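name: query_chain
kind: protein
chains: 1
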Amino acid sequence: MTEIVGGDYNMYSEENIVFTSALSITETGEENGVTYGEPQDPPLINGIKEIEIITGLDDGSANDLSGGLQKGFIYGNSYEIKVKSYISHAPQNKDWIKWMVKYHDLSQNSWVEIRLTAKGDYITLTINNNELCGRFVYVRAYLRYPEREAELKVWMHNRFRWFDRSKIDDQIKTVLKILGKLIKEAVRYVEWRHSIMQ
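structure:
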């Protein structure tokens, strides 16, 4: 068998690719020869293209020191989310559609993926994990490839959603500085009182 290709030649497989010959298998390229590993992902033939939130998001602080607002999830609320479009067509069985929530855990400095038990083209997502507060949450719907199919990035408000976290941090630092100065003055006063009592 001789195969001549005048451009790129890509072969994709879910499992192994096996070549067997009674003599030898030779693959050569004019410049680089044979390459193994680091394969590209196959093109998606089907899957979830887009998802959308049906329930309105809630206002809260933009958390950027601007005093502005942004839309986002609120702890304890529920949100209806549905599949908006498919890469080519809807699956035969809507229960094949799976859902996931992904977020970055700041304390562990790692990504956390929570696979949801809900299946189908429509879910009600109840936000009841306080680890999600104060960061972006990524909601995914997928058939086979969660990292390559539909993803929606949504801000999750802090529990104190009307306050800008950066401003609160600055205010806490200011209060701590003032407390530090007061403590130093109190120590000086106690030392002075102690010295005059002797």
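note: Residues 165-197 form the longest helix (33 residues).
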